[in-house]
Amino acid sequence: MVKKIKECVAAKKDDNFKIIARSDAKGVEGIDKMIERCKAYIDAGAEIIFPEALHNAQDFEKVRKELSCYLLANMTEFGKSKLFNYKELENFGYNIVIYPVTTQRLAMKNVEDGLRTFMLMDIRTILLIKCRLEKDYMSWLNMKNITH
Fold first, then answer.
1. Using alpha carbons only, what angle is made at residue 145 by residues 140 and 148, rounded to the nearest 5 degrees?
2. Sequence-distant (≥ 6) Cβ neighbours of residue 91 within 8 angstroms
3. How many domains does the chain have?
4. Is the pTM of this model over 0.85?
5. Virtual CA dihedral for 33, 39, 40, 43, nearest 10 degrees?
6. Residue 119 belongs to what domain range?
């Protein structure tokens, strides 16, 4: 992995492009070995570390204390980590948080709820709702164009 990071750093052409190194070693080798690996990644040029599968506040705090770089936290429902909100992660010293499938799950639940509702409605009601949603969407688009 260190070799790959060095190659990425050497190939980098834009300072705004950041090298993120992920480590899943905690589950296999423990947190101390994972931290050792992450330090080697930082030495190789990684600018952001993504320590995967931290379990609790103590894990997050230990990684922050040991690593002097930007840290990325992965908050996914049904993952190994306790779910913390962005403010808690910020207090632990994490700079970036991702919610990789949360928005997809929210969208799919809303689609499911909408389809269940449509099954109970007649076509005229569905068309009225559709027209209203399109009107709201178009209004939202116009507001976005005005503010930017």
1. 120
2. none
3. 2
4. no
5. 180
6. 103-147
